[in-house]
Write a structure and sequence with these properties.
The complex is a heterodimer of chains A (325) and B (535). By secondary structure, chain A is an alpha+beta fold. Chain A contains 12 helices and 6 strands. The longest helix of chain B has 54 residues. Classes of the chains: A alpha+beta (325), B alpha+beta (535). Chains A and B meet through helix 4, strand 5, helix 5, helix 7 and helix 9 of A and helix 7, strand 18, helix 11, helix 12 and helix 13 of B.
Chain lengths: 325, 535
């Protein structure tokens, strides 16, 4: 039986030759993503800004009547709703700010949502209530800060682990790759204005873990080759390591993508944003482990002797004794 | 490499099959097949986002606990010193600034006072710290400050009681199997599966249900009461509506000498025999009944106020002594609101006010939809992935695929045995774990290919493949564990469900993808002794 080989044997692509232009592009992309995230902003869900979110499915309509629903709710006088498609075209989410005084008496918010639900159901008999979330300002603030702490802590903890297992330059490289992946994914959400909620933070944490898988595999091979080929110049050695692991990188990325695409196309609509974030992250993560994590080792001047065990005092004395005799 | 002792093989198979078997009840229940009930059936719980239901996050007001402690300390100190022999007179009592302070009128009695007060404090916490700090300033001013340990102990106690009360109230609504647990120091997480509309629950939990009976201070001038000025020894209490206090917005009541309505044995909604109004009939326990009888006997023909959660419900006249130990609370109720109050009183008062700070409800249809779609996506994704692995690695792909199937079953089995909850993001975690679990096999198989290309013989190549790949597999899994643990620590609800799936998946996937395949490959190598590998 002839087996599938996506990467021919003895492939030798000079990845590192293009490291400077790629790096420039990547850094520009990171800057653009962060700028977009901070200027245009993320479409933060109620998880992070507080408020009320009510979700409906219109079971006998192809598309949700967003404009009509907005008019109906405007008339209730609770303020302006944010209404958008959610999941499928016939599903929508209505976001409201919490009414005045509801921090003290949550029943006020409860009455508002009851009124909205009743109004929508009366006007659209096929409306099915899918969910109703109320998050107070206090809790949303905590969720936001603990989400950010988790993200930062994960990035730092993983980098420290890499530093301990390899060398500090590798830790910096891993951190840089992670910053790249997270920034670009944030940029995607700022660009598309898809809702950014708690699930997306979980997606970011996941892609941090998996993007690091690729980086570790490449780093592991670099370390091995550094011990094997002491004299080889760094760029050449990095190219060799990336090429040697290329087949694995492609097969694994494809495996994960196969399942993710199935989830994206056939899976629950509610987690579309979540799946999209991870899928996108797998792409940028694969790229970053080759073009972000590896070249930085050259610039940080990883030493060819980094992984040669240090000579202990006893060894040194023995060597000197041998040399004398 | 080829050496795989029998005990190891047996153990591997036992572990794999045992956990895989534990997944069967969950699978059959999703498919709608019921198994005979004689066999034990551990099942994966479905989170609220899949099963439908409501989640409420309640927050207790911790500063209230502090205030209450100081108030009750004031009561105890007064009582204690009044009963002391010789009597100790104190003055200038103040409970501001988070502590209780008073002046002992006769400076000679300072030591005696200290002796009297000391038994009112107890040890708190493990540090041996007491729950109150006693200081004497300016010779005769006592300052009692609750210590942090004391406050924390009081909050713990209040939260325990609050959880009990919340449970009783939810049970009274007839909803099944609520999951109620404490979060952090002053929060309670309530999950009620299947509850579609939490409005009633929120209203019920919003009631502290602190019932008090206090005498109305008839000496207070109505013009003073309107301005909020109370005669000495009295306080102004607002009325729920104008009808409650004969058209007045508030009335003055005497601070002391009233009784609390916490000594009840029953409370039910009923109708007043004369007016046919909805009322709540309460029955005191023996002690409470005696106190109530004494209060009503001593104050016939005077009005007293029925106060619920700091608001006057009504202020009827005491027409005759009430000796039977039962009473009626009127207060322009509807049948529904009277019933709600009865439930609240039956379940006891909450020791602190609870506020809903987060509320999430998921409709049951959406959850069912998500499970169905998640299962289909998982099936299609897995089959496609297995096909891809098969054409890439041939015989080694078969081993990887077998490991994959066992891995899926084992994750489900471990989740069922550990009684964990599967959430919507958890389904995504599942699918992702499947994709990522083959990474270990990819790493191993690619390495074997490489070693073969370098001219190693079959057995050595396989051995090197497993050995060299396992370093990267180990490191990669550790970083994933770091991410998953942080997700679990900082995440809430559904996200935790996702983190749990990831963590279980990491452990089971290393076992199936590395240990099990290694065993299978070793057994094949020993039996077939191939000199060439198709890989």
């Amino acid at each position: 039986m002839k087996l599938l080989k996506l990467v021919p044997d003895n492939t030798n692509i000079h990845f590192l030759k293009w490291r400077v232009p790629f790096y420039v592009v990547s850094v520009l992309l990171i800057a653009a993503s962060l700028t977009l995230t901070f200027t245009r902003g993320l479409n933060l869900g109620v998880d992070f800004v507080g408020g009320q979110m009510i979700r409906f499915t219109f079971e006998r309509s192809a598309t949700a009547p967003i404009a009509t629903v907005r008019e109906e709710i405007d008339k209730l006088g609770f303020g302006e709703p944010t209404i958008q498609e959610f999941g499928k075209p016939n599903q929508l989410s209505i976001r409201m700010r919490l009414p005045e005084g509801s921090e003290k008496d949550p029943a006020i918010a409860e009455r508002m949502s009851a009124k909205i639900v009743a109004t929508v159901k009366a006007a659209h008999p096929d409306a099915r209530l899918d969910g109703n979330d109320t998050v107070s300002g206090k809790v949303s603030g905590e969720l936001f800060s603990s989400g950010m702490v988790a993200l930062l802590a994960a990035m730092v903890a993983i980098s420290i682990y890499i530093w301990i297992r390899f060398e500090w330059q590798f830790g910096v490289g891993a951190l840089f790759a992670l910053v790249h992946d997270v920034s670009l994914t944030l940029g995607l959400f700022a660009l598309t204005q898809l809702e950014f909620d708690l699930n997306i933070v979980a997606a970011l944490l996941t892609l941090i873990g998996y993007s690091l898988n690729d980086t570790i595999v490449v780093y592991d091979r670099i370390r091995e080759n550094m011990k094997k080929y002491r004299r080889m110049p760094m760029p050449e050695l990095l190219d060799l390591s990336v090429n040697e692991t290329l087949s694995r990188t492609i097969v694994t990325s494809l495996s994960v993508l196969i399942t993710l695409v199935a989830l994206l196309l056939l899976g629950p609509d509610v987690i579309f944003g979540f799946t999209l974030a991870i899928t996108f992250g797998i792409f940028v993560g694969t790229y970053s482990s080759i073009y972000m994590a590896a070249p930085i080792l050259i610039w940080l001047k990883v030493n060819a002797t980094s992984f040669v065990p240090q000579e202990s005092d006893i060894d040194r004395q023995e060597r000197l004794a041998r040399e004398r005799s | 490499m080829l050496d795989f002792p029998r005990w190891k093989r047996v153990t591997y198979w036992l572990v794999a099959l045992l956990f895989a078997l534990a997944a069967v009840p969950s699978l059959t229940s999703i498919a709608g097949i019921s198994l005979p009930s004689v066999i034990p059936q551990p099942k994966v719980n479905l989170g609220l986002d899949l099963a439908g239901g409501s989640r409420l996050l309640l927050e207790a007001d911790a500063s209230q606990v502090r205030r209450q402690r100081i108030e009750s300390m004031e009561e105890s100190v007064r009582q204690r010193l009044r009963g002391a022999e010789p009597r100790i007179r104190i003055g200038d009592i103040s409970s501001r600034d988070g502590n209780l302070s008073f002046v002992v009128e006769n400076p000679a009695q300072v030591d005696a006072t200290r002796e009297q007060i000391l038994p009112l404090t107890t040890g708190a916490g493990l540090t041996g710290q007491r729950d109150w700090d006693i200081k004497v300033e300016d010779g005769n001013r006592f300052i009692l400050t609750p210590t942090e340990a004391g406050i924390n102990q009081a909050i713990d106690h209040a939260m325990e009681t609050a959880i009990e009360v919340v449970r009783k109230r939810i049970d009274a609504l007839g909803t099944r199997e609520p999951d109620i647990r404490r979060l952090g120091s002053s929060r309670i997480d309530v999950q009620v599966p299947g509850l579609k509309d939490p409005t009633q629950l929120i209203e019920l939990l919003g009631k502290t249900a602190k019932l008090e009976f206090k005498l109305v201070d008839e000496t207070a001038a109505p013009s003073d009461v309107v301005q909020g000025i109370a005669p000495p020894g009295s306080e102004i209490v607002a009325c729920v509506d104008a009808g409650a206090c004969r058209g007045q917005p508030a009335i003055a009541v005497k601070r002391l000498g009233g009784i609390k309505g916490d000594q009840l044995t029953n409370a039910v909604q009923s109708n007043d025999q004369r007016t046919n109004e909805a009322v709540v009939s309460i029955t005191f326990d023996q002690q409470g009944g005696a106190k109530f009888a004494k209060l009503t006997t001593e104050n016939v023909n005077k009005p007293f106020a029925i106060i619920l959660d700091g608001k006057v419900l009504s202020a009827p006249n005491i027409n005759e002594p009430i000796l039977g130990g039962s009473a009626q609370i009127s207060g322009s109720f509807t049948i529904e609101s009277a019933n709600q109050l009865a439930i609240a009183l039956r379940s006891g008062a909450l020791p602190v006010d609870l506020k809903v700070v987060e509320q999430r409800t998921v409709g049951p249809d959406l959850g069912a939809d998500s499970i169905k779609k998640g299962a289909i996506a998982m099936l299609v994704g897995t089959v496609a992935l297995m096909a891809f692995i098969l054409i890439t690695y041939g015989r080694f792909g078969v081993y990887a695929n077998l490991a994959l199937i066992l891995n899926v079953l084992m994750i489900l089995g471990v989740m069922a045995l550990a009684n964990t909850t599967l959430t919507l993001p958890g389904i995504a975690g599942f699918v992702l774990t499947i994709g990522a679990a083959v990474d270990a096999n990819v790493l191993i198989n690619e390495r074997i290919r490489e070693e073969r290309a370098r001219g190693r013989r079959v057995v050595q190549a396989v051995e090197m493949g497993y050995k060299e790949a396992s370093r990267a597999i180990f490191d990669a899994n550790i970083t994933n564990v770091i991410a998953a643990v942080l997700m679990f620590v900082f995440g809430s609800g559904p996200i935790r469900g996702f983190a749990v799936v990831l963590m279980i998946g990491i452990v089971t996937s290393v076992f199936t993808a590395v240990n099990l395949t290694r065993m299978w490959v070793a057994m094949w190598l020993r039996k077939a002794r191939p000199t060439e590998l198709v890989l």
